[in-house]
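Hello forum,

I keep getting stuck at the same step: I have a sequence, I want structure tokens, and every attempt I make locally crashes halfway through. Rather than fight my setup again tonight, could one of you with a working pipeline run this one for me? It's a single chain of 147 residues.
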Amino acid sequence: MIYLYAFALVAGIANAFQAGANSTLSKTLNQPFLAALMIVGVSALTLAAAGLISGRLAWPTSAAFAAVPWWAWGGGLLSALLLMSQLFVAEAIGAGPFLGIIVVAGTLASLLIDNYGLVGFKLHPLNAWRIVGGALMGAGVLLVALF
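Reply #2:
Ran it on my machine without issues. Output:
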């Protein structure tokens, strides 16, 4: 189980570099939407290669497609929103504030998602400690943004 936390840690570090790399690509090309399409294309090729190499890439059955909840298809739209925020916002406000806001907003949203068991997550009720943790993260981001 520890490897899952390590993977999440590496993903968090990659996220910090990704925002800068994506923003630089957009700025250098002076074409943010083309940059976004190129980023998504590289992502798709990388995922296809990883899936083929691991032997875990297969086309689902029509029954599997039909079983997907309607809201699960929105993940691609949310990915596009995150990508566009990297291209238009990250460089303007800086890496620390940008990623801090993303992490705190995600953490606060996850508290509600867990509390109500939304989008496929198990119910994990909100409590005082979780609220304090979210508030401390918000205070930390404020300090990073101000100083």
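The longest helix spans residues 2-29. If your local run keeps crashing, start a new thread with the error log.
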